Recover the amino acids of this structure.
């Protein structure tokens, strides 16, 4: 089983980061490779809920994520499946002074394997998976900052 991971710290709180992270309607803006969310079933982001999404033409196809663990203000673990892999992906939120550190970790198994799969995984797939997780976090930062500013911007009132 391969493991890919990425982490990054952002200004803000765990509460804000978590609220924006689980907002599936905004996923196409920041999740690398995600074109559109197809369906959402259950009480997302809690255990038992699932989301199915589709990638762009050169991506992973249909991806299904089913929540197997959720702890508010800590993180979530999903079982993930697409045409190429099965595995578990987790996101964790850790407070750090005026920042929040977000870590993504994907433990995966390549479903169609050959004798060369371990070498190809080590040289190419794991690196590509880690890069994709890092790009997701890089895109999430501006989204979190922008949505946080909108939420904290005072509204004008007419007296």
């Amino acid at each position: 089983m391969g493991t890919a991971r990425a982490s990054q710290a952002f200004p803000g709180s765990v509460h804000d980061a978590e609220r924006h992270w689980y907002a599936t309607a905004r996923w196409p803006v920041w999740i690398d490779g995600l074109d559109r969310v197809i369906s959402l079933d259950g009480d997302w982001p809690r255990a038992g809920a699932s989301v199915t999404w589709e990638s762009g033409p050169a991506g992973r196809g249909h991806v299904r994520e089913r929540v197997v663990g959720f702890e508010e203000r800590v993180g979530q673990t999903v079982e993930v499946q697409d045409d190429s892999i099965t595995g578990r992906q987790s996101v964790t939120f850790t407070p750090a002074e005026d920042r929040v550190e977000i870590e993504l970790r994907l433990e995966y198994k390549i479903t169609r394997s050959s004798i060369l799969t371990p070498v190809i995984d080590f040289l190419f797939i794991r690196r590509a998976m880690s890069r994709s997780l890092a790009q997701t976090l890089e895109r999430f930062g501006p989204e979190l900052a922008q949505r946080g500013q909108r939420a904290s911007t005072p509204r004008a009132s007419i007296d």
